[in-house]
Amino acid sequence: MPRKALYSADLHVHTVASAHAYSTVNEYAQHAKTLGIRLFAMTDHGPALPAAPHPWHFKNLRVIPHVLYGVGILRGIEANILEDGLDCPDDILDELDIVLAGFHQPCIEPQSCEKNTELMIRTIESGKVHIISHPGNPEFPVDPEAVAAAAVKHNVALEVNNASFKFTRKGSFENCIALIREHGKAGGLVTLGSDAHHTHSMGHFDEALKIVEAAHFPIEHIINTSPENVLLFLEQHGKDFRKFLEFFERQ
Questions:
Q1: Considering the chain, what is the average pLDDT of its residues?
Q2: Where are the beta strands (DSSP E) in the chain?
Q3: b vs e for 222-247, b when ≥16 Cβ sit within 10 Å of the residue's Cβ?
Q4: pLDDT tier at 6 (50, 70, 90 boundaries)?
Q5: How far apart are CA 98 and CA 117, in angstroms?
Q6: For a disulfide at 48, which of 16, 80, 221, 246, Cβ 3.0-4.6 Å?
Q7: CB within 8 A of 180, min separation 6: which ones?
Q8: What DSSP designation does 28 have?
C-alpha cells in the first residue's frame, strides 16, 4: 500500500510526454487517488529541452479533463528560462492553468550569479509565471535577497523541489535554505514539488520539508497544503476556477 502524501496537492509532475518520464496522465490520476492527492499539475518540460513536447502538446492540453478518477488536474508546463524569455509562445502560456519556469541545461548555460539573478527576476516580472522551479540549483546561483524581493512583489511562488535532494541538482541543500529563509523573511509563498517522473515519486515532499524546517519557513505560506489554496493563489493571477473550486467544496 503506497504511503499517504503529506499534502494533498502536487504541482510538479512529468508525464511520458517529457520523453525521460515514465507514467501517463491516467496513471498519475489513479495513483493520486491512493495517496490522498486531490489535485496535481501536469508540468511537462518546455519545448526547448531535447525530446520535450512540441508546443502543440501544450496547446492541446485543453482536451484533458480537469477531473479524472475524482482527482483534480491542472494543465501546465515547466517552461525553460532562456536568454530571450521563455520557450513557449505567450498565447499558449496564457491558456494554461499553471506555469512553472526554471533553468535547465542544455537549454541555457550557467552564467554569473548576477546574470542568473537578472534572468530569473525578468522571468518573475514577466507576468507569465506562477512558480519558479528549483531556484536553489547550485549550477545557476542567484542572489537570494533580490530573487525573494521580486517574487514577493509579483506574487510568484518559489518551489522547494524534492527531487533536487534525491536524484538531481546535487548540492542544492544550502542554496535552498538560504533562498527560502530570505523568502520567508520577505513574506513570500512556497510550493513543495515532487518533480515526479514516475508515479512512485508523486506526493513525496519529505526532503523538501527538511528545507522548510531548516529555513524556519512559516507553514501557512506553503501553497499546496490544499487544492483550495492552490486555486485561490492562481485566481490572484487572473485564472477563473469558480467551478473547479465548487468541485472540491463538494468533496
A1: 95
A2: 9-13, 39-45, 67-68, 71-82, 85-86, 98-102, 131-132, 157-161, 190-193
A3: bbbbbbbbbbebbeeeebebeebbeb
A4: confident
A5: 22
A6: 80
A7: 136, 158, 160, 190, 211, 212, 215, 217
A8: H
